[in-house]
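G., the chain you wanted modeled:
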Amino acid sequence: MTVRDGSSGAENSTTFSLGIAPALAVTQSLYSKVLSMNSNVNLTAINVTGGVSPVVSISPSLPQGLNLNASTGEITGIPTVETGATTYTISVTDQNASPV
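Predicted structure as tokens:
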């Protein structure tokens, strides 16, 4: 890039790099699931592609014994407490975008 002063003709140049990351995209792969207490769980509720270092979060918190992998969205563990049906919201944010 070069900047030039129109009246004096003085100019200054510099270079810069520009990169374009693939767009962050999320697809839902699980809509409803009933789990058994004290049984191993390994679920993929969403699939995340693109973006820059996407981070997955869930609200409200998962039942005791279950964990969310913030990089992949995978839910794993062994539920140890009985709970009623709960609706969860999964959000994905990357370094360049608003939550999806």
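The chain has one domain: 19-93.

Shout if anything looks off.
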